[in-house]
Amino acid sequence: MGLGKDKGSSRINRYEHQVTAIGFDNLDKLAEVLDVPVAYLLADDAAMADAILALSEADESQRDVLATLIPALIQDPTLLSRLVKLLQLPKREQSKALKTLTDKA
Fold first, then answer.
1. What residue spans of 1-105 are helical by DSSP H?
2. Residue ranges per domain, the chain?
3. pTM for the predicted model, two decimal places
4. What are 16-44's pLDDT values in tens digits?
5. Lower CB count within 10 Å: N or C terminus of the chain?
């Protein structure tokens, strides 16, 4: 962020311990230095931060699909649990299960 090691370390420590709030200008700089979206730094918890980071790594068409898919999975807990179970299978079995799923579609 251009602050130098000592000053930067002290400032980040104050941010982490919520002694000082980070300003929007510095938030942009920090996100740029860390190569993450600003929303990642503002996430409520680690899971949300991970989801934001994953979405930021998707291309625009993938983000559009995911933006439709996420609410659908939230509205259908059965579908979500089936998908989670599928993802817990060994890779070889995942491939077979996904093929079966796509063949039915």
1. 5-16, 24-34, 38-42, 46-57, 60-75, 77-88, 91-104
2. 1-57, 60-105
3. 0.64
4. 777 676 777 778 888 988 899 999 988 99
5. C
